[in-house]
Structures are given as C-alpha cells and as structure tokens.
Amino acid sequence: MSTTAASLVTIAAMALVTFATRAAGVLFVRAANPGARLTRVLQAAPKTMFVALVTPPLAHGGPAEWAGAVTALAVMGASRNLLVAILAATVVVAVVRLQAG
Amino acid sequence: MTHGVVITRAGLADGARTALPLAVAAMIFGVALGVLAAGKGLSALEMGLMSALVFAGASQVVALELWASPLPVAAIVIATLAVNSRHVLMGATLGPWLKPMATPAALGCCHLVVDETWALSMARIRAGSSDAGFLVGAGLTFWPLWIGGALLGHAFGALAPDPTRLGLDFLGVAVFLCLLTLFRPGRPEILPFAITVGVTLAAGTVLPGKWNVLLGALAGALPAAFGRPVSGSGVP
C-alpha cells in the first residue's frame, strides 16, 4: 500500500474531469446570460433532476425501496419536517430488508 | 433587485446545520469507501487525496471497483465523467447564487456541489433565499466528514458497519423525494415527469454511468421552454 505515480495521476485526472462537470454548468449560465426560454428550462430542471435521480433506484428496487418512498412522502406530507421524513423512510427500508433476510 | 454576492454567517450556519445529519450518513459511506480502497491497495494518502479532490461518492466507488494493476487510467477517467455528468445541470441551476459572484469564488463554491448539498440548496433558492452561504456551509460540513470517513475506513476497515444494512443508501432517494414535494408539483408536471422517467430508464439500458440521469432531467425540463412563464421560483 504505497503511493504510486500512476495512482496520483489517475486521481488528478478524476479530480479534473469531476471539477469540469461542476464548473461547466456554472460557467455556461454566467456566459450565456439565459433568456426567458432557457430560464424556464432551468426553473423546471431541479424538479426533473429530482425525478431522474430517484427513477433508477426505485425502478430497480424492490418492496423495501418502494415502502421507503411511500413513507418518505407520507411523513413529509404530514410533518413538513425533512429530517423526520428521511429518518422514518430509512428505518422502514432497513426493517423491510431485515424481514426479507 | 440586488446583484451583490451574499454569503452571511447565518447562511453558513443554516447550511451546516441542515446538512449535518446527511453529512454524518455520508461519512459512514466514506468509511465503506475507505475499506474498499484499502482492499484495492491504495495508500492512505491516495485515499485522502481522492476524497478531497474528487469529492463525488458514486464515481469514487466506480473508480475503485475498476482499480487494478496496471491501472486502467482511461477507463477510470471515462467512468468518472459518466457518473458525474449530472453535475453540469446542477451547476446551471445554481445560477441564482453563483452568477453574481466573481468567477474564482463561483468555481470554489461549485467544488462543494454534491447531490445532497445541491438538493438542499435548490429548496432554499425555491424558498427565495439569495444567501449562497447555505451551499458553502453545507459543502464544508460534507467535505471534511467525507474525507475523515474514508481515512477511518482505510485504517480500521474490519470495524466498519454496512451502510446498506442500515438503509443509508436510501437516504438520498428520500431527500430528493421530500424536497420535490416542496416544489408542489401538480398537473402541469405530469408530462415532464413522465418524459424524465421514460428517458432515464431507456437511456440507462444503453449508456454507462449516470448519463441517463442528466439526459432524463434535461428531456423533462426542455418542454418548459415552450410553456408559460413560471412565477415565484426565485430565479432572476
């Protein structure tokens, strides 16, 4: 487990492309000065990004993930408290997985 | 309308406080990552540098799974890009906070964008906050815990808990679902969301990494270009 030049180069390259992904969108909106249409797209994007992020784990998940999703939404709706909702959902997922063995 | 950069102490504290529970969960994942890294023969220095400089968990897991001797550098870098491509759209949506800043400050802030800090920030922007300190406070809470967790896992691997058994892998999904409800999606969102789900699933069968997440989110958002103006979302 010694540090090697090849590892450091790989890590540096990973850092570089990752930073590029983070900076690209920021630099784009700074340079492009979005008009009305692009502004509407960027306003809609957080919502569709949330949906896109949860789609694969829920589509490829099972009863534990589905029960967790229902719990998260139900508790959030009732309590309006993010922390309570995600804790409840996590406990449900862990318990259902334990039941399933 | 003001164009000044706002980073207040209250914003930093709010971000740190809001992100802390999620950052602790991320730390437990960091521990699991450190265990994986030690098994692959990475040194503690390499683990620490990767977590500090890449700071993107899913891509680090993928990279470590590919880690072998000799190192498949190109494959690792391409996989990293594929997993982290979604950051492009996330950065663009942070425009209301990052646009008024000087470029170096905005670029510094964007290193603190991870799924959770971005999601929490979107909820604050939606609520009308103009205080980018929230993102900075949240990011600076995640960052050291992520690095520390990885180093702990690297050093004391055998004692690590399994995050999946604890259901912690579901935390992100729960956060995204709950924050989505704050945007009060209704009838107008049915079509965009259906497009997003369809494109995300279809693209996921042919593309590697998380290109499907970026494409699905973009495809669902694009119809908004032809819709009526949305009011009160906090985007100038």
What can you see in these coordinates?
The complex is a heterodimer of chains A (101) and B (236). Chain A has 101 residues and is mainly α. Helices cover 87% and strands 0% of the residues of chain A. Chain A has helices spanning 5-32, 36-59, 63-79, 82-100. In chain A, helix 3 packs antiparallel against helix 4. In chain B, 53% of the residues are buried. Chain B has helices spanning 9-39, 44-53, 57-66, 73-84, 87-93, 95-98, 103-110, 115-126, 133-155, 171-182, 190-206, 211-221. In chain B, helix 1 packs parallel to helix 9. Chain B is globular. Chains A and B meet through helix 1, helix 2, helix 3 and helix 4 of A and helix 1, helix 2, helix 3, helix 4 and helix 5 of B.
Helix content of chain A: over 70%
- Which parts of chain A are unreliable, with pLDDT below 50 for 5 consecutive residues or more? none
Rg over CA atoms of chain A = 20 Å
Q: Hey, which two chains have the biggest interface?
A: A-B, 71 and 96 residues
N-to-C span of chain B: 9 Å
What spatial form of chain B do the alpha-carbon principal axes imply?
globular
Distance between the termini of chain A: 36 Å
Tell me about the biggest sheet of chain A? Answer: none
Compact overview of the structure:
The complex is a heterodimer of chains A (101) and B (236). With 101 residues, chain A is an all-alpha fold.
What is this structure's SSE topology?
The complex is a heterodimer of chains A (101) and B (236).
Chain A: H1 5-32, H2 36-59, H3 63-79, H4 82-100
Chain B: H1 9-39, H2 44-53, H3 57-66, H4 73-84, H5 87-93, H6 95-98, H7 103-110, H8 115-126, H9 133-155, H10 171-182, H11 190-206, H12 211-221
Which terms would index this structure?
heterodimer, A: mainly alpha, 4 helices, 0% strand, B: 236 residues, mainly alpha, 12 helices
